[in-house]
Design a protein that fits this description.
mainly alpha; Endonuclease Iii, domain 2; Endonuclease III, domain 1; 13 helices; 56% helix; DNA-binding
DNA sequence: CGCCAGGGCCTCA
DNA sequence: TGAGGCCATGGC
């Protein structure tokens, strides 16, 4: 899937426009244990995640699958009482208890099994070792785990390991379709390649761009009732924007 | 009430 | 490989 030559700069333009319009998003939100501060609003950009934070991001990436992030926050509050569970604590936890702790995120039985499966992997494979792998190798390992598909793998690579692998989600696909850059049947990898080929391979940019697309999807590019009147990515605004 | 939200797995052609 | 069914809570 190639986009037309004249459109090549659209990907860069949209990033600049979204960043200017919405501001920095500060992803990935971490801090489930810091209940005494607004942990979900702190800026995490340019920060190397601790092992605990990496694990929290991984858990969050599973819980947020096909689910509103607000539901995940509720689960985090339950999980983090009294403290956010380590991989070993997840693994040792009674399955039914774990399922109830993540109740509000939906699919509790599926996700409880996935969390235990993934916790077992990260008990045996340390973050320091995994950090040394290149993106394709790390990605294949993550994809081999039950419960981690394309988007979750890239979310973990990008937000936990700070490596530049672009995250494609439903918002991303919808946006590119409405920008007339792809079709409904364009695959995950083809969509990801559009971003990889038109942006510097920079984890900070990938981090911010995906978060901005999600914010844009929530504020303007909704599935059923998009708000096109004030859309910062309307055709005329994109065309008149100079890099 | 129906639809959607920061998906992925399994099955069956 | 691709379409369809399934998992399931909470907001609107």
């Amino acid at each position: 899937m190639n986009i037309n030559k004249p459109n090549l700069k659209i990907i860069r333009k949209c990033y600049d426009i979204l960043l200017e319009y919405y501001g920095e998003q500060g992803w990935w939100p971490v801090g489930a244990n810091r209940t005494n501060e607004p942990s979900y609003t702190i800026t995490n950009k340019n920060r190397i995640m601790s092992h605990e934070e990496k694990w929290e991001i991984i858990v969050g990436s599973i819980l947020t699958q096909n689910t509103n992030w607000k539901n995940v926050i509720k689960s985090f509050a339950d999980l983090a009482n009294p403290s956010f569970p380590s991989p070993k604590e997840i693994l040792d936890m009674d399955l039914e208890k774990l399922a109830m702790l993540i109740y509000s995120s939906g699919y509790r039985n599926q996700k409880a099994l996935r969390l235990k499966n993934i916790a077992n992997f990260f008990l045996e494979n340390k973050f320091d070792k995994l950090s040394e792998y290149d993106i394709p190798r790390l990605r294949n390992i993550l994809l081999s785990l039950n419960g981690i598909g394309n988007e979750t793998a890239d979310s973990i690579i990008l937000y936990a390991f700070s490596k530049p692998s672009f995250v494609v989600d439903a918002y991303t696909k919808r946006l590119l379709i409405r920008l007339n850059l792809i079709s409904e049947k364009t695959t995950y990898n083809d969509i990801q390649n559009i971003f990889h080929e038109n942006l510097p391979k920079d984890s900070e940019i990938f981090n911010e761009y995906h978060a901005l697309i999600v914010e844009h999807g929530k504020k303007h590019c909704q599935k059923t009732k998009p708000i096109c009147e004030t859309c910062p990515l309307s055709i005329d605004k994109i065309c008149s924007y100079q890099i």
